Fold this protein.
Amino acid sequence: MKIRWLGHSAFSISSPDDVNILIDPFISANPACPVDVGDLEADIICVTHGHKDHFGDTMELAEKNNATIICNHEHSVYLSQQDLDTKGMNIGGAIDSNGIKITMVNATHSSDMDFIEGIGPGGSSCGFILKLENQRKIYHSGDTGIFGDMETVIRNIYRPDIALIPIGDCYTMGIKEASIAASWIKPEVIIPMHYNTFPVIEQDPYRFKELVELSTDTKVAILKPGETYQE
Ligand code: NI
Ligand code: MN
């Protein structure tokens, strides 16, 4: 299994059976992203919400790869009107796509579709838990503030092994909140995201790593954009 960080909240995940999953593929306009849209492959594209820095190149990538877009109901209605393959979900539910179990979970964030002219209402922002063929579970929180269900629902029910959580502050949790979230979620590994893409979310990920590793058994894997965490 490989988890490649593409900068910001964009990840490319290859499952043990080689299913390619893109999450929040903000690529062409992402100043931190080192790859071209044309170089990415996807069977599944998961979108946490309709902000441009997450929705990104979803439509172009879905069309080019014949990928299924997994997103909330409101985005799914819009995307199916664009003749794209999409499965709409809502928070608390799960689906199976290409052998990957995908559960949509809560996030505390706004979610207008700001990539369309005039801005459309985008339903709820969300996170995803991906359960791979080898039963390893990856939690991508999307943009979110800290919330109690990270412990009562995400930890106690889903028990993710690897968590991808934001530390950039301003729009999401900052380092202090994210380190508390780490102690609630208790994954084996955290990969921080949504920082250092723009000046307003500049953070030192090593400060986060130190805070988490001093107080929990979780390891923090700091990636540079383009780098891969593999197991
Ligand atoms: Ni956002
Ligand atoms: Mn964002």
